[in-house]
Design goal:
4-stranded antiparallel beta sheet, about 20% strand, about 40% helix, DNA-binding, homodimer
DNA sequence: GCTGCGCAATAACCTGAGTTAATTCGCCAC
DNA sequence: GTGGCGAATTAACTCAGGTTATTGCGCAGC
């Protein structure tokens, strides 16, 4: 299996053999985390970043009263806290949604890349810029879309991201997220998430039984969600 | 007057004379934009980025029905669309809130920096990471805070950012944003923004007459907004 | 001094989403 | 197959915030 980060960056621009070699050998260890386990703590200052080899993770920000907002979902190939290379301390927690296998990369290695490999540096920078672009899209869906369209939008996004890394096809994917977590991502209550899920099911915009979500008609769901995939930057280009 | 980007980055880490020199001479021109004018169009692919020398700007994302969400406010020293160096096409518009003076920097110059000046590259990367960190904080305030705390939080943030660039002191600053724009940033209706502004005034958490906002008791406002400035990364550190 | 205009302020009414609490389902352990 | 448990579902009621419409105010233009 090719290295997931190489595939991911390679989807945006061609990587040289030397660059691929560097990424191949960048991890100093592989850790496994159980579902629900905290991978990175808010307020911590680490000297490494984590790349997902297997499983789902989320970035969570806690409020004082115990409620939380999820600011991102992460899947195979995502460099969950690459920003902690320069941005310290961590402004959020990273939590394993399912069991996760993570490759740990020392910040000294990333620093060495910035010293000697400008193109690869730009590609890593790009990957954090895409995270930010997704944050902005979430701001719009959170601030301006009604709950049903908001959920539909998230499902469109996750499907395309999963498809890009080979974890989804034929408009169906495994979605290991409880309605409670979904509520934390959508800024809703659990009860209302349930109402909205059932509305989308009733309208045949999605199917969802067990952990598997299906999209009977992607164009219809896109339209309903006002979804435009540009912000995911899934196209190859010189950087 | 020192170059605002040098001061801004210099607040996060020491810049060498050579680095300062590069930033000094990086702009190829200075443009002025009128209030309300579009500085960068959504969907466009430019070969330069803009740095604010004077005035306020915002990043706006439009919906089909004409409504919009503001995803960021920008002030003196902010590199409004540095991400367009690697992320194309633009996923949002940049609009001048007041009259703006902008320094335009060619992407070829930024690229040259990434080729030859790793530390300066990291500092520029950092500045986009701070943007992302603010996006995440906004996701929390948008998703989980009630409207009054949300507005209070924004005012805390803007005060500290303005103070850091010398545009605010003594807990008072010029806030050139109409309640309609504010509604687009907070994900609220204009009417509700007005209700909330008056609530904060009534509670003596803020004063706001004309374009000037005052904060009689910053600690009380922080508490009310659950505001923690960590995410602004205003502290100096080696990068 | 009048007119027009953008913005702030108010009012009346409506609705999407929150809250609390009870019920049901699916699945695993023993 | 029974008990336990987390998650999904449902119901009843409340409320934050949206909608539509009107009014007031300061100011630029003539």
């Amino acid at each position: 299996m090719p290295h997931p980060l190489i595939s991911k960056l390679g989807r945006r621009d061609r990587l040289s053999d030397a660059e691929q070699q560097i990424l191949e050998t960048s991890a100093f260890s592989v850790h496994t985390f159980a579902a629900g386990e905290e991978i990175v703590a808010e307020g911590s200052t680490s000297d490494y970043s984590c790349l997902i080899l297997e499983g789902w993770a989320s970035r969570n920000k806690q409020l004082k009263d115990g409620r939380q907002q999820i600011t991102a979902f992460h899947i195979l190939g995502d460099f969950v806290d690459l920003h902690s290379f320069l941005l310290k301390p961590m402004d959020h927690t990273v939590v394993a949604i399912t069991a996760c296998k993570m490759a740990m990369v020392k910040h000294s290695v990333v620093k060495e890349i910035t010293e000697n490999h400008p193109h690869l540096t730009r590609m890593l920078w790009l990957s954090t810029l895409i995270d930010a672009s997704i944050h902005r899209e979430w701001l719009v869906t959170l601030g301006r879309l009604p709950a049903p369209a908001h959920l539909a939008h998230l499902i469109c996004e996750l499907y395309l991201r999963l498809e890009a890394v080979g974890e989804a096809k034929d408009y169906s994917f495994v979605f290991p997220v409880t309605q409670t977590l979904l509520a934390d991502a959508l800024g809703l209550s659990t009860v209302h998430v349930n109402r909205v899920v059932q509305e989308l099911r009733r309208e045949k915009l999605i199917s969802w039984r067990g952990a598997r979500v299906g999209i009977p008609n992607f164009d219809r769901l896109k339209l309903f969600a006002e979804f435009d995939p540009t912000y995911l930057n899934l196209l190859v280009e010189q950087r």
